[in-house]
Hints:
By secondary structure, the protein is mostly helical. The protein contains 3 helices and no strands.
Amino acid sequence: xxxxxxxxxxxxxxxxxxxxxxxxxxxxxxxxxxxxxxxxxxxxxxxxxxxxxxxxxxxxxxxxxxxxxxxxxxxxxxxxxxxxxxxxxxxxxxxxxxxxxxxxxxxxxxxxxxxxxxxxx
Length: 121
């Protein structure tokens, strides 16, 4: 009897399972609000971190100009790491923008229909 209930319950639940993947997000849904909030939060956080990396780099430049000897080499390393951190942050920000624009865009990308021509030809 138990097997009978499991079999019938599975068959009755099959339409729910197959229709569970069809979801549409309209502009008023909570998911879009969460995504927009997270996007703005990450944008502000990355901007602040890039600013801090810039300050770290400038601090290394000032140290390189004002110091000599062993401390000058340390300031060189600080400038190098500042540039590396800025480059990594900017590339991370670019990757996030690419993912957000490709996953969460409502417009379908289309190929251009007109080919460029040479003027006067």
